[in-house]
Design a protein that fits this description.
Largest sheet: 5 strands, mixed
Structural class: mainly beta
Order of helices and strands: EEEEEH
Shape: elongated
Helix content: 10-25%
Radius of gyration: 16 Å
Strand content: over 45%
């Protein structure tokens, strides 16, 4: 398991928020992430843009300090949670384009 910090980035390139999660594998560019709130309909959808490995050097050896994943907001259409849809509407009102989330079967 990997302790990963996930930075959720809006289409303006600005960080919207950060979450920390234990993941069985590290997301890579192009992977998708969904996040839902317990007891609520829909989810927030993101597309991974990059992964950053931060190392710490101690003498002649380095060790892993932290892993960051940067994921961009995406539009999952009818599957968006109400709060995610609000964020997307804000970005669109600013004239920013939000990428579509690749749904299975579409």
């Amino acid at each position: 398991m990997y302790n990963v910090k996930i930075s959720f980035i809006g289409p303006d390139g600005e960080q919207n928020y950060i979450a920390e999660a234990m993941l069985p594998a590290l997301p890579q560019a192009g992977d998708t992430i969904t996040q839902r709130s317990s007891g609520k309909d829909g989810f927030s959808a993101f597309i991974v843009r990059s992964t950053r490995w931060n190392l710490v050097q101690d003498g002649d050896s380095s060790s892993l300090d932290e892993v960051w994943v940067f994921a961009e907001f995406a539009d999952a259409g009818q599957f968006n949670s109400a709060s995610h849809e609000q964020c997307l509407e804000f970005y669109r009102a600013e004239g920013l384009e939000v990428p579509d989330f690749p749904l299975l079967g579409s």
